[in-house]
From TrEMBL:
Belongs to the binding-protein-dependent transport system permease family. The chain crosses the membrane at residues 34-57, 91-111, 123-144, 315-340, 361-383, 422-442. This is Alpha-glucoside transport system permease protein. It comes from Sinosporangium album. Residues 87-443 form the ABC transmembrane type-1 domain. Residues 1-11 have a biased composition (Basic residues).
Length: 452
């Protein structure tokens, strides 16, 4: 044995051997790991596993829990008409709300890169996330009030409509019901009893309105001058405060009805239209021959437009979805803004230098590179829409809750909201879990792919 070989063996004897070679385990034993994991496993079992297992078991019994009914509760979900409405509404939520939240969040995220006060804008858009869904529901319950004096939505709609509408409605007004009255009611309109010719004065006295219902600035009625060309007349409230006055005659203290639409008809066809002045007078100077019928169309007597019935059975679901978008658009904006910030600017600048328009850059570069974040937001919103409860419960009045119902709310209603049917409620809970599970599994598998 050479000196070099002896030295190598001596060095080997002085080097510690690895644990695998000695049969020893590196680190604590598996038993120690079990003790550390045991509290979390127990908590998971008590708060997640046990409720799920018990709900499956309870869904196979009747409302009292004493009679085994098998899958009857699940059959009821798909055969009862109210339940089918609930499932339809849930499908509408899943089809509409996540897509709109994602699109609105993307628009806001793009805007934050192009405006000066981006931080302030993000703060305002994200602020609804700081408010609970219950409080958001209360806010939008007032926003959707039918009365424009209280509901912001209808206040905006009626204000915009009033800009383009110059007519003045007089709902409740009507002619006197006697043979001497110069006008009569006909299919909701008011027409002259006899045809009139040019040069004649048409008096249109109306009753059925209290003087205090008219604006304070309403002027006294005035009889049109004699000898003027065409057909002239007056529309006024034929009522003298305090009594007195002659019927079918313009008295001193009687009020004019201004802004009322007046039509002149010949052979059943409208040949002229005008509106009454502040003193109630109107004129058709272009009518120089022939007999005509003067008519106040029915639109004058219809109730004024007070906005949409947001809390009615027709619009209640779109209204609640709009509130949902208001709450979650900030969340989507923050995630998408972070995704936009991570996109390489070189790719965007290269596309612009090659002549691509901003829309082409957005559609062909930004959106494909942002697609993983868009998918995260979209799937998260699907899960949130399947679990939506607070907004529907608070915004929808009790009379229209059946039309706005969703699975999560119905589960609470049949179990704890007065129904007392814990079997059906458990079946709805399991049905909701089945709806959510595919999207949760999709998210988990995507996270694993990203980490691998």
């Amino acid at each position: 044995m050479t000196t070099k070989t002896a030295g190598r063996r001596a060095a080997t004897r002085g080097t510690p051997r690895p644990p695998a070679a000695t049969g020893k385990r590196l680190g604590p034993s598996p038993k120690m790991a079990v003790w550390f994991l045991l509290p979390a496993v127990l908590l998971l079992g008590v708060m997640v596993i046990y409720p799920i297992v018990y709900s499956i078991f309870r869904s196979l019994f009747d409302a009292s829990g004493s009679t085994f009914v098998g899958v009857d509760n699940y059959v009821s979900i798909f055969t009862d008409s109210a339940m089918l409405t609930t499932i339809r509404n849930t499908l509408i939520w899943v089809a509409v709300a996540p897509a709109l939240v994602t699109v609105v969040g993307l628009i806001f995220a793009v805007m934050t890169e192009r405006i000066r006060w981006a931080t302030a804008f993000k703060l305002v858009v994200f602020m609804p996330m700081a408010v609970s869904l219950m409080a958001s529901g209360v806010i939008f319950r007032f926003v959707y009030e039918q009365d424009p004096d209280r509901g912001v939505a209808n206040a905006v709609i009626t204000s915009v409509r009033d800009i383009f509408s110059s007519g003045s409605g007089i709902p409740g007004a009507r002619p006197r019901e006697n043979d001497q009255a110069p006008v009569v009611a006909s299919d909701g309109a008011v027409v002259t009893r006899q045809p009139v010719s040019p040069g004649q004065t048409v008096l249109v006295p109306l009753v059925g309105l209290r003087p205090d219902m008219l604006p304070a600035s309403t002027a006294p009625a005035k009889t049109p001058g004699q000898g003027t060309a065409g057909i002239n007349g007056t529309v006024w409230l034929d009522f003298t405060p305090g009594g007195g006055g002659a019927p079918e005659k313009v008295d001193v203290d009687e009020k004019a009805l201004a802004g009322v639409t007046v039509e002149a008809l010949r052979d059943g066809t409208v040949v002229a239209t005008t509106t009454t002045a502040n003193d109630g007078t109107f004129s058709f100077p272009e009518l120089t021959s022939g007999d005509h019928v003067v008519r106040l169309p029915r639109e004058n007597f219809e109730a004024p437009f007070n906005g949409l019935s947001w809390l009615g059975p027709t619009l209640i679901t779109p209204a609640i979805i709009a509130a949902f978008i208001w709450v979650w658009a900030g969340f989507a904006m923050v995630l998408l803004s972070a995704g936009l910030a991570s996109i390489p600017r070189d790719a965007l600048e290269a596309a612009r230098m090659d002549g691509a328009t901003e829309w082409q850059v957005f559609r062909r570069i930004t959106v494909p590179l942002l697609s993983p974040v868009l998918l995260v937001v979209f799937v998260t919103m699907i899960i949130n829409t399947l679990k939506v409860f607070d907004l529907v419960f608070v915004i929808a009045p009790g009379s229209v809750q059946p039309q706005a119902n969703v699975v999560a709310l119905e589960m609470w209603r049949v179990s704890f909201g007065g129904g007392g049917d814990y079997g059906l409620g458990s079946a709805l809970a399991i049905f909701l879990l089945i709806l959510v599970l595919p999207f949760m599994m999709f998210n988990i598998r995507r996270f694993k792919r990203e980490q691998s």
